[in-house]
Amino acid sequence: MRALFTGFDSAWSVFNSGAICNLEWDGESLCLAGEPETASWTHALQRANAPRRAELQVWAIDQPLVVPNPQGCRAVERDLARALMAEFGCGAHSANAGMLAFAADAPIWKLRQVLYERGYRQDPMAVPGVSDGLYFFECYPHPALIGLFGLNGVLKYKANHRNLDDWRTLLQLLRSIADAEFSIANIRDVVTEDLPQTKQNEDKLDALISAYIAAYWWKFGAERSSMIGDMETGYIVTPHNAPMLAAFHRVFEGRMNLAGPTDPMPPQFVIEPDTAAGATLTPETTDIPRTDWIYFATPSRWSGTVTKDFVQRNQLIVRNIYNSAGIRIANISHLKPGDRLLLVHGGKGRPYRALYACAIGSAEAPVQHSRHRFDVFTCIDNSLEEELENGGYVRDSVVGRFTGLCITDVVDLRLSTIPIPRPAGNNTLRRWEEVFGPA
Length: 439
Fold this sequence. Notes:
13 helices; six-stranded mixed β-sheet; elongated; Archaeosine Trna-guanine Transglycosylase, Chain: A, domain 4
């Protein structure tokens, strides 16, 4: 029997590339079928739609595949943190339909649709020991590494952590699979001792780990891995060790290793060919650059054109530091020179859309109130007060002046038509990851 285990790390991103890795089983041994590859959504869709290559084909996808909740987190993410956070420091990123990564036209649903159309089943419990068929399921590398290698905690190997020690540890652990009971014969040819810590390599290793999770689940099933959660509210398949398994039983109780496939694509998530995510949600067509922050501006009497002209002319975003109750606005103090910011405009029944991206600059005369100094905010010149009043803006309730966020390098994004989902809550200043998911 021949089997193909495909790992796909989507990076939870609509815009950025992830990676794909294939492991082949020839009836006797497991090996890499080439090096992991950087993969766009278009690439992933092409792979999913490719002719069948083996009797058994299994995809393990590092992104949630069942996301019924409109906001917050899924039950499986909440309970995973309850089970593993105290002992292992392992939680999970929240997934909800309010995030762009899981919006109705997100590419993950197009990938799911293509897999269904090609005959794949989302039925994790049918995979262990099976000799024929097409399957896919959700996985998560962080707890998988703890379970596979008996680690005491999460490895912070991501490129943005710049933790070279954990990166080198990851390389050593993966290379050790060459000598494991269920080995990957040629893994050391791809995972070299001096593999650089880059985002691209991180994605490729996540794809490799995902592929191995698929093979490991097939080989050992619930003896060494668990499917936690359920097919209605969300699930994750991960290898476990003894302490993890005990924690899973304590927290998940009966919501483990539940048999049965999910229903086919819900109607609201079926994407017609002319609006396929791979065709509409790409950097080339949306041109929305990744930023550190997203500011959700509500409508004023100014149009987007007048707003943009004011910003470019004065290198300022009109923004109060304190709200009308005299409370400092959330995240204001975290802004620093050099951060990138995306300003989006909408609300009151209208979708939020991008106006422009920019860099946050330093104020020549920073706003200072009481013990607090705001290095990226300035009091706007009195000569502009009438213009701002006519535009519907109000003075800061504590500072007593119009205040503005100093910016540079303004990029016009008004031609972008993609809606930007605003997370629940009143906070208008959000980190990129809160809106679009992790990189």
